Amino acid sequence: MESIAAEAEVFIRDYIGSFTSALDSLDMETVTKIVDTLWQAYQSDRQIFFFGNGGSAASASHIVTDLTKGALGHRGDAPARPVRAFSLTDNVALITAWANDVGFDSVFIGQLRPYLREGDVLVGISASGNSENAVRAIRYGREVGATTIALTGFDGGKLAKLADLSIVIGSNHYGIIEDLHMQIGHVICYLFRQLIEEKLASEPIAG
After folding, report:
1. Does pLDDT of 38 surpass 90?
2. d(CA 137, CA 180)
3. 157: left (phi over 0), alpha (psi -120 to 50) or beta
4. Class level of CATH domain 30-200
5. Does 206 have pLDDT greater than 60?
6. Which pLDDT does position 205 carry in this prediction?
7. Bridge partner list, 168
8. Would strands 147-152 and 165-168 be described as parallel, antiparallel, or unpaired?
9. Least confident of 33-47, 55-69, 121-135, 191-205
10. What is the mean pLDDT of residues 107-136?
11. Residue 169 in contact with residue 152, Cβ under 8 Å?
12. CA atoms of 124 and 119, how far apart (whole Å)
């Protein structure tokens, strides 16, 4: 049986090297602004919507899971107000209804119209930044008066130019772009957990 160990080692080193290079070039100032924007939305009890296609759809669902449960501790039971975050990638019936009857370009904007309000936050995740359903959703968010955020890669595409705040991962590799989108997601969620824990610890105990 042929071993691929030597080839695998080279591939792994190259991949990790490319990942590290992209991580080192991350725009930390904009990441900080994004985290602060989301925290202010939480403090104001605003809604936060995440969406994306393919791997980015999975990232949207993952981040929302961490924000709505994980931010309140491992068991999700910290005595604090939960984060009002929603993933537009999880309602299969509604997604397929919009895709089948209107078109796939409408699967996100169709879900946003009943719920998105001025002051809410919309986070679009797209490696290319050119997914039409994501572009339409961000454009609608701006029309409504929501704060719009884009997590992209490559050259940022249309999404990076439309959004109020944009992170463009410095890579042309889908895997590395998606890896770093999730890194940012985990930074957001674990900082939320820390801030909520600190807030609870500083509040006087009644009695």
Report:
1. yes
2. 22
3. left
4. alpha beta
5. no
6. 54
7. 152
8. parallel
9. 191-205
10. 98
11. yes
12. 16
